[in-house]
Amino acid sequence: MDLNDAAKLLERSRHVVVFTGAGISAESGVPTFRDALTGLWSRFDAQSLATAQAFREDPDLVWGWYEWRRRIVQRVHPNQGHLAVARLATLVPQLTVITQNVDDLHERAGSASPVHLHGSLFAPRCATCARPAPLPSTPDQSGEGRRVPPPRCAHCDGLIRPGVVWFGEQLPEPALETAARAASACDVLLTVGTSGLVYPAAEIPRLAARSGAAVLQVNPRPTPLDPIATVNLPGPAAEVLPALLT
Ligand code: BJW
Ligand code: ZN
């Protein structure tokens, strides 16, 4: 099967799930996690930044790191990959966008309500009482590796934490449920720019494959999802996705 066959599959499908990871935002200038030279985990230690324990031990370091990443996302723009995903919604009867990304580039490209499995950089909440908190309106104090003290909760004075899902934390139940339901009901799942290493999210394309859906994978590099993919479309998302829709 090649790009043309994959395009035909998409065209004829009734319910498409698009499952995205950091790779779809790479060409916008948002760093991925696991790419060898440019990935965040090649320069930063996940255990000291992306766990609840890290936040308890050094809230200023963790909050500062997420502020730095939020400011990067605010400065960049959706790319042709995000735009193609938004356009796909107008070409098939039903489309569900499921993203592991904590950026808002799908929304800004015009995808109505992507399911965020790993939360968002733009939805901070209280670490104590869990109430949502406003984004800081202070001028940008962030910078790579710079400590920034987190704001305090207006209700209970607890520390405000980033609204993302850290290692060892449960994924938001409604998001995971919606994703699992869509994956088991779709006829095509298009996985884009994910290493497929992080669970339970990586179960989503596997679930679709077990339920009989065709799995189309867009990624410049091999991933553990290669064996379940009906077709692998190697290349950057901002090139392959528009080509798939023409
Ligand atoms: C391009 C491109 C271009 C480049 N175009 N492509 C089973 C087995 C082993 C371990 C576990 C397991 N089940 C659970 C675990 C533990 C853990 C886990 O999965 N660990 C593995 C890493 C080993 N999972 C968890 O801890 C999860 N929680 C949990 O299991 O809770 C259980 C529980 C139960 C009951 C009570 C309490 C708990 C939570 C996982 C949360 C993950 N969080 C992060 C950070 C979010 C916050 C933040 O942003 O800082 O989410 S980690 C990071 O990885 C982030 C991403 O969403 C996630 C996935 O990464 P993604 O998107 O795939 O990016 P990369 O960088 O890995 O890959 C990029 C890809 O793009 C590459 O393939 C490139 O080739 C490609 N690419 N340029 C297209 N231009
Ligand atoms: Zn609170």
Automatic annotation (TrEMBL):
Gene Ontology cellular-component terms for this entry are:
cytoplasm
Give binding positions for NAD(+). Q100, N101, V102, D103, G193, T194, S195, N219, P220, R221, A237
- UniProt: Zn(2+) binding residues: C126, C129, C153, C156
Annotated substrate binding sites? Y66, R69
UniProtKB keywords:
Cytoplasm, Metal-binding, NAD, Transferase, Zinc
Q: Which reaction does it catalyse?
A: N(6)-succinyl-L-lysyl-[protein] + NAD(+) + H2O = 2''-O-succinyl-ADP-D-ribose + nicotinamide + L-lysyl-[protein]; N(6)-acetyl-L-lysyl-[protein] + NAD(+) + H2O = 2''-O-acetyl-ADP-D-ribose + nicotinamide + L-lysyl-[protein]
Which positions fall inside the Deacetylase sirtuin-type domain? 1-246
Indicate where this protein resides in the cell.
Cytoplasm
CDD domains from the entry? SIRT5_Af1_CobB
Instruction: Report the cofactor remark.
Output: Binds 1 zinc ion per subunit.
Q: Where is the active site?
A: H118
EC primary class: transferase
What's written under domain?
A: 2 residues (Tyr-66 and Arg-69) present in a large hydrophobic pocket are probably involved in substrate specificity. They are important for desuccinylation activity, but dispensable for deacetylation activity.
Spell out the family assignment given in the record's similarity comment.
Answer: Belongs to the sirtuin family. Class III subfamily.
State the function annotated in the UniProt record.
NAD-dependent lysine deacetylase and desuccinylase that specifically removes acetyl and succinyl groups on target proteins. Modulates the activities of several proteins which are inactive in their acylated form.
The protein's name in its UniProt record: NAD-dependent protein deacylase
Recall the taxonomic lineage recorded for the source organism: Bacteria, Bacillati, Actinomycetota, Actinomycetes, Micromonosporales
Gene symbol here is cobB1
